[in-house]
């Protein structure tokens, strides 16, 4: 758990269960950057080496990569990078800082391509640090020392970053920071396509909370309000569970608020006496009937069931 009063929280690199997956990406089109196999595990970052001079063949490879995966923009200069962040405005921008020599980078890239095809409100960028001196300079400016490294930006501001993560954690980060509650996230694991609806209501101020409570005051549904902070590792870790539960529990309404999004959210959390995150508030008939503080999947499910009237034995 993270202390609520400490708003500058370094992300926790929690190791999640690794998952094998296959991609629709054609490895022949992507040539040397992507391997023909796409089995992915939690990765160990590699130190970036100085790039060798680009040959004509490697330059052509970059062009093919861009054509093959037009949803992932291949950035070649600092100017292109800054322009992409500016053009994205308030959309989430996910950047994979990678290297051609890194097997871990090439294993994660197909999964990012899969995400880019279904998360239309998220901008995906690829920067190869060993491509040229220009990209190496960008690595230095962004303080990237090891690859693969994922950075998340909104409004040209870096809001989160991860090193050595696997597909599950990347998807969780995109869901958490992408505000993608109305879309469908899909990807392929072990040859099977999974589609996940994301019906989690996003709350951006106190008025949003009050309206949601009023809308469900008479229908008897349990409202589960997930309260977190932007840079809270446990909040990110538990959010994919919240998304899955929101799809499976039709009689429960799930919502989320980041306390450090603005002053209104911060004041609401103080009024609710939230001192640690993630905190889950359970609301029924317009009243807070309980809360759970923590990121344990089993404990969260147990608490929801308990407030649904299901007897739970620990």
From TrEMBL:
It holds the Pfam family Thioredoxin. CDD domains: TRX_CDSP32. Residues 35-49 have a biased composition (Low complexity). Residues 175-310 form the Thioredoxin domain. GO terms for molecular function: oxidoreductase activity, acting on a sulfur group of donors, disulfide as acceptor. It comes from the Eukaryota. Gene3D superfamilies: Glutaredoxin. Transmembrane segments: none annotated. Residues 35-67 are annotated as: Disordered. InterPro entries: CDSP32, Thioredoxin-like_sf, Thioredoxin_domain. PANTHER family: THIOREDOXIN-LIKE PROTEIN CDSP32, CHLOROPLASTIC. This is Thioredoxin domain-containing protein. It comes from Centaurea solstitialis (yellow star-thistle). The lineage of its organism: Eukaryota, Viridiplantae, Streptophyta, Embryophyta, Tracheophyta.
């Amino acid at each position: 758990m993270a202390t609520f009063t400490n708003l500058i929280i370094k992300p926790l690199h929690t190791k999640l269960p690794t998952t094998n997956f296959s991609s629709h990406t054609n490895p022949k089109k992507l040539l040397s950057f992507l391997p023909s196999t796409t089995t992915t595990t939690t990765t160990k970052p590699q130190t970036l080496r100085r790039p060798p001079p680009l040959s004509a063949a490697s330059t052509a490879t970059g062009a093919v990569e861009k054509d093959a995966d037009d949803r992932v923009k291949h950035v070649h200069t600092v100017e292109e990078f800054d322009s992409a962040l500016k053009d994205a405005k308030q959309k989430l921008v996910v950047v994979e800082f990678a290297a051609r020599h890194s097997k871990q980078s090439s294993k994660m890239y197909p999964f990012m391509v899969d995400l880019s095809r279904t998360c239309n409100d998220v901008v995906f960028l690829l920067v190869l640090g060993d491509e040229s001196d220009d990209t190496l300079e960008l690595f230095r400016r962004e303080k990237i020392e090891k690859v693969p490294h994922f950075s998340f930006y909104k409004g040209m501001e870096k809001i989160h970053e991860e090193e050595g993560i696997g597909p599950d954690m990347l998807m969780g980060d995109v869901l958490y920071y992408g505000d993608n509650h109305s879309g469908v996230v899909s990807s392929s694991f072990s040859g099977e396509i999974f589609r996940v609806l994301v019906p989690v209501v996003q709350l951006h101020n106190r008025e949003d909370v009050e309206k949601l409570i009023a809308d469900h005051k008479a229908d008897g549904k349990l409202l589960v309000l997930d309260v977190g902070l932007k840079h809270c590792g446990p909040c990110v870790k538990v959010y994919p569970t919240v998304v899955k539960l929101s799809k499976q529990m039709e009689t429960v309404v799930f919502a989320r608020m980041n306390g450090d999004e603005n002053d209104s959210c911060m004041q609401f959390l103080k009024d609710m006496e939230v001192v640690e995150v993630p905190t889950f508030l359970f609301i029924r008939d317009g009243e807070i009937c309980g809360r759970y503080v923590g990121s344990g999947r089993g404990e969260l499910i147990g608490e929801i069931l308990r407030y649904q009237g299901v007897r739970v034995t620990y």
